């Protein structure tokens, strides 16, 4: 289906704010390119367009068109208008690519042979990019059209798709490629068992080995501190070089700081049995890479702010920014005060721990560092960090309370009944129990749910059997409970909203 001609430009009001206006046109008379009027009129051939996307700003949405030799950002569009335009642009490009394939169908035979040669070799894990690169090596316009980064095989007309060779299912069907790759990974784990068993001075786990072998266009490896991420990076590079998939100078490794980059460089050189000075893989920090790119593009080194080179420069800058915000932004001042009051120290969430014993050991170690107590701004001592947060919030909002006060709720003489709630609010004669309960009603502590059930039911039962003495005019005592989840957001007025009900 041929795309209709269209013209796009910024919205009416956006035109008053943009530094320069633009107009993007497509016409059936020139079905292989866009016409763009910006600073000057240019033609954007479809063959050179690598990506089209959107970026949302505060008021408007912009379209970004990346070509082989330029990037154009066209702003001033509403969100819906931007999405519609992106769809039209991609559709126009895909229609042109489909027409190119239809006019060169005889080349599909060579494309089929190239893909079959790739899959029969079983030499490597296959990402979509690998298949597209293989197709691009085939001479002819049809191969270039199929390998185009914006070619959408799902939008190919059925009449043409029926003439595609079966090997193109590797491009069209994710399950087909997944089956191939899963079979390859299983075989490769066995073939390189000895290699991964003595790598970087250790034997990699199954998950680490698989992370080395899988080579998608984009890979995300999620791992905790100390779990072997650096060893996996070293292993992946060693594996790629051993397979001959990439040259050393084609590999870039990034670290967050100089110490990590130096360690990575040393461990990689040791694994490859070469000196660090002979290492041709580029190992760098993110900042050094960015600075190098800027120097290469602009032809001169980038001048950094004075504070960058000083150890305390960053903290001083942050402190300066905080002070300025406190003086000019009342909302920030309130949030900053609550942060310091309610979160004086970083707290590891209770649900991270495997057992109650582990959590209590953490609390014990922390309280010992703090002098063996958990104190609050009101001067009382509490038993948990969450109770500390609640007490500090009450103090911050000038709400009178008593902590674990023993309260009589009924009975006479020796049969007098008492409860000892976490918090008691004398101004409204209400008490408040806090439980380490998650949003889904579960707790990391087995005893917590029992405590919740017994305490609340027990309080109501005792109160209902109390005598009609003047001190206990109500049949039940007002009581409400909070949980770890409900009090998680310190910036909210959840507690205050609950208190206003009474």
TrEMBL record:
Keywords carried by this UniProt record: ATP-binding, Helicase, Hydrolase, Nucleotide-binding
Keyword Acetylation: no
PROSITE patterns: UVRD_HELICASE_ATP_BIND
Residues where ATP binds: 223-230
Gene Ontology CC annotation, any one: cytosol
Domain UvrD-like helicase ATP-binding: 202-502
Superkingdom of origin organism: Bacteria
InterPro entries: DNA_helicase_UvrD/REP, Helicase_IV_N, P-loop_NTPase, UvrD-like_ATP-bd
GO terms classed as biological process: recombinational repair
Keyword presence, ATP-binding: yes
GO MF, one annotated term: hydrolase activity
Protein name as annotated: DNA helicase-4
Species, as recorded: Marinobacterium lutimaris
Source species taxonomy: Bacteria, Pseudomonadati, Pseudomonadota, Gammaproteobacteria, Oceanospirillales
């Amino acid at each position: 289906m041929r795309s209709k001609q269209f013209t796009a430009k910024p919205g009416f009001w956006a035109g008053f704010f943009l530094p320069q206006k633009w107009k993007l046109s497509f016409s059936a008379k020139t079905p292989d390119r866009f016409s763009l009027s910006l600073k000057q009129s240019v033609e954007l051939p479809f063959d050179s367009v690598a990506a089209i996307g959107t970026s949302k700003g505060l008021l408007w949405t912009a379209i970004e068109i990346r070509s082989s030799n330029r990037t154009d950002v066209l702003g001033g569009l509403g969100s819906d208008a931007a999405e519609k335009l992106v769809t039209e642009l991609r559709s126009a490009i895909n229609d042109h690519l489909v027409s190119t394939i239809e006019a060169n169908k005889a080349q599909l035979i060579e494309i089929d042979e190239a893909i079959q040669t790739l899959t029969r070799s079983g030499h490597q894990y296959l990402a979509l990019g690998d298949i597209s690169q293989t197709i691009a090596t085939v001479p002819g316009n049809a191969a270039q059209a199929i390998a185009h980064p914006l070619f959408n095989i799902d939008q190919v007309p059925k009449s043409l798709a029926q003439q595609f060779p079966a090997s193109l299912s590797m491009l069209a069907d994710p399950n087909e490629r997944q089956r191939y790759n899963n079979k390859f990974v299983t075989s490769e784990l066995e073939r390189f068992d000895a290699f991964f068993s003595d790598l970087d001075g250790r034997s990699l786990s199954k998950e680490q080995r698989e992370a080395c072998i899988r080579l998608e266009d984009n890979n995300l490896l999620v791992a905790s501190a100390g779990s072997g991420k650096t060893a996996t990076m070293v292993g992946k590079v060693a594996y790629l070089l051993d397979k001959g998939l990439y040259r050393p100078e084609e590999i870039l490794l990034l670290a967050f700081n100089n110490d990590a980059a130096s360690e990575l460089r040393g461990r990689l050189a040791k694994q490859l049995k070469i000196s660090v000075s002979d290492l041709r893989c580029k190992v760098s920090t993110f900042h050094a890479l960015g600075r190098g790119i800027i120097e290469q593009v602009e032809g001169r080194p980038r001048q950094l702010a004075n504070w960058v080179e000083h150890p305390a420069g960053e903290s001083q800058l942050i402190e300066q920014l905080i002070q300025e915000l406190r003086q000019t932004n009342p909302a920030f001042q309130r949030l900053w005060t609550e942060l310091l009051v309610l979160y004086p120290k970083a707290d590891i969430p209770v649900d991270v721990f495997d057992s109650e014993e582990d959590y209590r050991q953490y609390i014990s170690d922390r309280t010992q560092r703090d002098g063996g107590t958990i104190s609050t701004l009101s001067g009382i001592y509490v038993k948990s960090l969450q109770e500390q947060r609640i007490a500090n919030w009450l103090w911050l909002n000038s709400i009178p309370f008593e902590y674990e006060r023993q309260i009589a709720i009924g009975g006479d003489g020796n049969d007098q009944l008492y409860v000892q709630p976490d918090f008691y609010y004398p101004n409204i004669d209400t008490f408040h129990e806090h439980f380490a309960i998650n949003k889904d009603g579960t707790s990391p502590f087995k005893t917590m749910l029992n405590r919740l059930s017994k305490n609340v039911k027990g309080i109501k039962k005792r109160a209902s059997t109390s005598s009609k003495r003047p001190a206990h005019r109500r049949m039940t005592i007002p009581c409400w409970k909070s949980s770890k989840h409900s009090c998680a957001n310190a910036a909210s007025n959840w507690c205050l909203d609950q208190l206003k009900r009474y």
